[in-house]
Design brief:
Helix content: 25-40%
Protein name: ABC transporter ATPase
Order of helices and strands: EHEEEEHEEHEHE
Organism: Flavobacterium xanthum
Mean pLDDT: 95
Distance between the termini: 43 Å
Amino acid sequence: MYIPFENLPEESKIWIYQSNRKFSDAEFSEIETALQSFLEGWAAHGTSLESSYQLKYNRFIIIAVNQDVQAATGCSIDSSVEFIQSLEQKYSVDLLDKMNVTFKLGEHIAHKPLIDFKKMVKDKAVTENTIVFNNLVNNIEEFNESWEVAAIDSWHSRFF
């Protein structure tokens, strides 16, 4: 069951999927429609999941579930991954590769393989103050506080 993102409790579990390229506005509009449809029918053991999403920067898909009402289970998580895989196929993008880093370069959102990001650190093309997207956050509270942070304040700090 879809509900507005802002109506979910801060403890709600989230999953963040980053695209290896920016989606067009038309693609993001289609994805939004598909997400709402998927979440309306998303269930665990026959019980609807109180869930929502956010789309950010034409690049990120964030799915959230209020686990206090009904926890996402193996099968329901699998169905969400299958949904994400269907988006990957339809739009020829990579949403599941965790070995990439997305960060801000001024107003631009950059997306690089981890090895390239490490090289940029070495070459001082990015610094400890570079804003990175910490996609390892687990819930809405962490998302609000720690998703867009200086590299030194995230798991990326190990490269400096």
